[in-house]
Write a structure and sequence with these properties.
Blueprint lengths: L8 H42 L3 H61 L2 H53 L10 H5 L24 H14 L1
Helix pairs in contact: 1-2
């Protein structure tokens, strides 16, 4: 069967592959028939040899040799046909790949025409510039808010802590610490042996519950 130029390449390849497969099946059938004939000749040669019919044995031996030669030829022809079928399959794969690349190139060409590269580059530059301005503005506003809140929060926190400590000690915010003026006085030069300071709460202050509470808290901190 000749190649028809009016048919598409895919159809031509399909028809040739079908024809090759048909030829391979016919060769397989012929080879199977020759193999059956080979077995039959082998059995006949054995029978003739047992019957001491040497002339018949020689004739059937020649037929057996020719049969085996044709079997080998059929095997070789089948191998050649399979090789041709593989080549056709390779050509079909290349043709499919070429069509896919062609359609992909057309799609990429249309896409490149639809996309305006200078416009996209300008748009990206504007986006980057505006994004930088937005980040700078957010950072500036955040720093200003943090500075304002930090001063107010720090002052309020300091006042709250001082008030809490003074409440625990039992002294109001406007009162002075007891014996503050005596603590600020400059110490006198001692000519005798140094005296060890008595712990807080010893002596006359033992009856003050606020000082006793403060002494207990200081002892807990020392532990």
């Amino acid at each position: 069967m000749g190649l028809n130029s009016s048919k598409p390449l895919k159809e031509v390849l399909r028809e040739n592959k079908r024809m090759i497969n048909r030829a391979i099946r016919e060769l397989d059938r012929e080879k199977a028939g020759l193999e059956r004939e080979e077995k039959m000749l082998t059995n006949e040669i054995k029978k003739a040899a047992k019957a001491n019919q040497m002339a018949s044995v020689k004739i059937m031996a020649k037929d057996l040799v020719r049969t085996r030669q044709y079997i080998n030829k059929f095997i070789e022809m089948r191998s050649h046909l399979q090789g041709v079928a593989l080549k056709l399959q390779t050509v079909k794969s290349h043709q499919a790949m070429a069509e896919a690349m062609k359609s992909t190139a057309v799609a990429m060409k249309k896409m490149n025409k639809a996309v305006d590269v200078p416009t996209i580059a300008k748009m990206m530059a504007e986006f980057e510039r505006e994004n930088a301005r937005t980040e700078l503005m957010q950072e500036t506003m955040g720093d200003a808010i943090d500075d304002a809140l930090e001063e107010e929060d720090t002052a309020e926190e300091e006042d709250r802590i001082v008030g809490q400590v003074l409440d625990e000690i039992g002294i109001s915010f406007g009162e002075e610490l007891p014996q503050a003026s005596q603590g600020m006085a400059s110490p006198a030069v001692s000519t005798g042996p140094a005296k060890v300071a008595e712990p807080v709460g010893a002596g006359g202050s033992a009856d003050d519950p606020a000082l006793n509470d403060l002494e207990a808290r200081l002892n807990n901190l020392k532990r």
